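Quick one before lunch.
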Amino acid sequence: MSSRTKIKALLESGKTDIDVTVKGWVRTFRNNQFIALNDGSTNNNLQIVVDFENTDPALLKRITTGAALSVSGKLVASLGKGQSVDVKATSIEILGDSDPEKYPLQPKKHSLEFLREIAHLRFRTNTFGAIFRVRNTLSFAIHTFFQERGFVYLHTPVITASDAEGAGETFHVTNFDLANPPKTETGEIDFKQDFFGRATNLTVSGQLEGELGAMALSDIYTFGPTFRAENSNTTRHLAEFWMIEPEMAFYDLKDNADLAEELLKYVIRYALDKNKDDIEFLSQRLLDEEKQKPQQDRSELNLLEKLQFCLDNNFERLTYTEAIEILKESTPNKKKKFQYLIEGWGTDLQSEHERYLVEKHFKKPVILTDYPKEIKSFYMRQNDDGKTVAAMDILFPGIGEIVGGSQREERLDKLEQRMDEIGIPKDELWWYLDTRRYGGCPHAGFGLGFERLVLFVTGMGNIRDVIPFPRFPKNAEF
Ligand code: 4AD
Ligand code: MG
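Model of the magnesium ion complex:
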């Protein structure tokens, strides 16, 4: 084990006059004397005071922004403002040089767009350090929440033959020789043979496999990458994103909504406790950004207040039909009424409608239930009205849909009838239908988009900034 101490631990130790070794990367080097060193354990840099008169000038020249250093010295109470302790260096070793002429990160504020271009280096900025520490905490919080409640973490496959959502937005998985692919009798590429003789794709959701687990283990959850080949260049969509999908036997729609609300509040509170300084930093960053906007466009609450507000209030619950009534009555910007006046009941909500409900009407998270069956997936439980299904979407301020879920159709005849109506081949999902044949029971589950959760908690505006290696159209280099 290295005898090095992490900077966060040093700053929190409250100790002084001890010998320490720290390792990290130079953020700035002022007056040949003060190094701001960061090792990623916290946003707070450690100030290293260099005895420049007794240090080799050639070494001083190599202390540049981005260089990796090992520093040994004494931890002392700081005389400067802004930090409680400094390290008076007795020895400095350069572990890795960084050519200041070429290093793309200068000690100044870079735009998020620029940093997206150099995503391999953006981890080294305060903003991305904070984001990825919060992301880490949230994923740990999710496991903790489910583990404390006796849920079993189930690993569902990434390569699968099913398109769980039936939306056709799948990436093919192929192992055939692209130069010489198998052909059909009519000479086209035979995609039915693309994975050792079987058509397969990357999973869009682990739900169907998750349901198999829940029909024996009672409560399970998945947490893994999912893939959607939608060519959507928005600030809310990725081609590869992580999803948490709990599935619970003997749950109805209300139990499902209760669990989702409890989970969201739990993980937000967890991050606020564990990463308060990072969230405060991100909140301040947002305030600085907001100052550039005209007064009327600035948000009323800062990030910390927004998160707290979410914890302190019950999520509003209403049906899709009730939401449409509200939208019909509302005129969001004086001149223009919502499209619903023309299209009416049965159409899917667009994000502007979702955001109106959450941000303007209720001003808090909303759980919408009982959507028209035509706009939802085949596996959702049909309601007695013959028109709607026991679906739920959770809508968050600034985000729109963060959770999508439902009570599942456990009645074999109803499920088969719906699959026939939509044209989903029953023989391909024989294994799924078996759970309804043998000991099927009421059950429910939902999918939480992990990046949308991280977006909400960090207050960031673009989903590409909350995943280390974003995948979106034409972006997959590293
Ligand atoms: O609403 P979706 O498509 O639901 C399902 O996949 C269900 N099988 C879940 C279930 O019931 N087990 O996706 C669930 C959530 C969305 O609410 C959203 O937060 C996120 O996944 N999501 C995306 N996140 C980023 N990029 C995309 N392209 C996303 N598509 C969905
Ligand atoms: Mg959805």
